[in-house]
Amino acid sequence: MGCTDSRNEILDEESLIKTEELNLGYSKFHCDKIDLIFKRYSLSSKMHGSQFLTACRELTLDMSLYGNPDKPLTKFYHSFKMNYKHFNQRRLSTLGVLLGQGSHKEKAKVLFKIYDIVKDNTLDESEMRIMIEDILEIALVIIPTYAYNLTQDEEKKVELGKYIKKLGSVLDTMIKYYEILFSQGQGTVITFNDFVDMFDKEEINALGNSSRIRKLSIREHGRVIAPATLVKDFILEAGKKN
Q1: CB-based burial, 157-178: b 16+ in 10 Å, e otherwise
Q2: Can you state the percent helix, strand and coil of the chain, rounding each to 5?
Q3: How does pLDDT run along the chain (242 residues), one tens digit per residue?
């Protein structure tokens, strides 16, 4: 019974997050189109505020609540800034991959284009790490925090906060997990074809869908973090008795 309740709670929290993801508007477009539009208005992966808003208008995104620094939408998009003046086009394009349309292989191809930073048709260890960190931070931290900031119901907000805390607790673990997955049998660089082929694996093609990443992360939390916390609490309690 407890397991069923736990699963339902996760489904409730995930449902709240997915609703706000849909409301952002990226699901109307193929991820490749989103990437092309953000790139069109960027220079060296940087976008001024005016370029960012022009790209959003071309994507017909609802930006009516953007601008006021206290509004959740403003805080959300400012998480994609690389400095005070510029937005990070790579991360915005990655948001489009996570929330936009496309098959596993199509999303893999777009991700490769985004993170082949030196344009040598390979991804080296540094580029791979940047990609993994960007994807996981967007899926596990930025999007859930946005949903939290929009939630009005206090009870739901408390539960969503707990869910977000669990996701954050496995961020570093998941980064290492994906670094290991991509490095297996690939050497120090991955070619375009090898990268796309790797998206046949369920754990790796989850990187194209933010909800699936969160579900994998919660599974990892249950496998690693929660048991470790129980052991720590047990040791502390035993220490008090002694």
Answers
A1: bebbeebbebbbbbbebbbebb
A2: 75, 5, 20
A3: 334 444 455 578 999 999 999 999 999 999 999 999 999 999 999 999 999 999 999 999 999 999 999 999 999 999 999 999 999 999 999 999 999 999 999 999 999 999 999 999 999 999 999 999 999 999 999 999 999 999 999 999 999 999 999 999 999 999 999 999 998 866 789 999 999 999 999 999 999 999 999 999 998 887 765 544 433 332 234 344 44
> What are the tokens at 196?
């796309």
Distance (Å, rounded) from C-alpha 152 to C-alpha 219? 27
184 and 206 Cβ atoms separated by less than 8 Å: no
Beta bridge partners of 48: 86
| Dist. CA 42–CA 87, nearest whole Å | 9
Instruction: Determine the 3-state secondary structure of 36 from DSSP.
Output: helix
Q: Rounded to whole angstroms, how far apart are CA atoms 215 and 231?
A: 24
pTM score > 0.85 for this model? Answer: yes
Domain that holds residue 145: 2-241
From CA 2, how far away is CA 188, in angstroms rounded? 44
Q: What is the DSSP string of 133-187?
A: HHHHHIIIIIHHHHHHHH---HHHHHHHHHHHHHHHHTHHHHHHHHHHHHHTTTT
Q: Please count the structural domains in the chain.
A: 1
